[in-house]
């Protein structure tokens, strides 16, 4: 068993239970066999509105959260995203 590693950084709260994997990574970004472009797909439907404009109501688009290290949800969702 691997040892636990301490992680430190800023955490962005996403207070929504049971976030579906299709919300985390929409299917249109999962067509390739490599990992290129996956960073553009994370929470795409939440991050952007119709027409591609950033959604100002989404936590990771709000001032102060663009430089977060770890978006995290409660009570059932924890996700580390590196870009």
Automatic annotation (TrEMBL):
It comes from the Bacteria. Keywords: Isomerase, Lyase. GO terms for molecular function: 3-isopropylmalate dehydratase activity; isomerase activity. Its EC number is 4.2.1.33. It comes from Salmonella sp. NCTC 6947. The keyword rRNA-binding does not apply. This is Isopropylmalate isomerase.
